[in-house]
């Protein structure tokens, strides 16, 4: 029986998850003169690394929230279960944070080139790479329905890619959707690698989810800040001829309330999205979280068409359908359990369980 708290968590996850992608795209679409007297002139807020920094600040807020919760609620100490240790060095989250920084920055560069809905849909390709890595690196057995889910996701990706091809590159909100989509898919390889690394570490230690997210945010902030300072000296195509012009980013941020709101929206939404996503899984089920995440993609898609970011593409509809079906089949949610209840499939095998595909 679902309680009002359950509906609150579901709504919070849906709203904050949608806001996260929308505010990021809004920030990139905003423009403001960098500063009076500067030669850069008015230009778009093209600073994906600074926006990645905002995301990691949001993740770090989860660590602060966890310690506040412990100080107030004083929960029982964690217990070592299944041979896992409750004592660990936070440095274990440095390598996953490196992967997260690489993947997030690449995805945000891709988002500057393509549509917000394509960005959200193509993130589903992580299932394919996670499945392959769990098979060939961790030596996990992939059951037939896992392969089926990966094939369905692949079909969906092809359809979404065709939608980008037919859309051309004339839209102001998506100057090069094909290249943007390629970058987003490439980033999912790094995301899959991050999941495999986290799986290996977390199989040894008992770590509260919010604390794990928070530590990755902490290391991610340090890495991205360092990269921004390095990229200041690297020639590129952004303002001032830099690969990343952090000075220009903060000047634009100080001169535009729209950009300020977008960055604040990214920080707050990613923090609450992580909290609500973990809570939905714990309080309800992974199935509920998967359904809400699918609705989030649909919400972003509808919003993008409503504000004129993109036009309706029937290939996107087909691709979205296959991506969702593939995700459900791979994660053994809804469809296969129903077939088992009806006696049309054998009971679910217990061994060889692959990595769970999470979204952050």
From TrEMBL:
<feature type="domain" description="EamA">
    <location>
        <begin position="86"/>
        <end position="160"/>
    </location>
</feature>
<feature type="transmembrane region" description="Helical">
    <location>
        <begin position="121"/>
        <end position="138"/>
    </location>
</feature>
<dbReference type="InterPro" id="IPR037185">
    <property type="entry name" value="EmrE-like"/>
</dbReference>
<feature type="transmembrane region" description="Helical">
    <location>
        <begin position="145"/>
        <end position="166"/>
    </location>
</feature>
<dbReference type="InterPro" id="IPR000620">
    <property type="entry name" value="EamA_dom"/>
</dbReference>
<feature type="transmembrane region" description="Helical">
    <location>
        <begin position="209"/>
        <end position="232"/>
    </location>
</feature>
<dbReference type="InterPro" id="IPR012404">
    <property type="entry name" value="UCP036436"/>
</dbReference>
<protein>
    <recommendedName>
        <fullName>EamA domain-containing protein</fullName>
    </recommendedName>
</protein>
<feature type="transmembrane region" description="Helical">
    <location>
        <begin position="258"/>
        <end position="278"/>
    </location>
</feature>
<keyword id="KW-1133">Transmembrane helix</keyword>
<feature type="transmembrane region" description="Helical">
    <location>
        <begin position="49"/>
        <end position="70"/>
    </location>
</feature>
<feature type="transmembrane region" description="Helical">
    <location>
        <begin position="178"/>
        <end position="197"/>
    </location>
</feature>
<feature type="transmembrane region" description="Helical">
    <location>
        <begin position="91"/>
        <end position="115"/>
    </location>
</feature>
<dbReference type="Pfam" id="PF00892">
    <property type="entry name" value="EamA"/>
</dbReference>
<feature type="transmembrane region" description="Helical">
    <location>
        <begin position="315"/>
        <end position="339"/>
    </location>
</feature>
<keyword id="KW-0472">Membrane</keyword>
<dbReference type="GO" id="GO:0016020">
    <property type="term" value="C:membrane"/>
</dbReference>
<keyword id="KW-0812">Transmembrane</keyword>
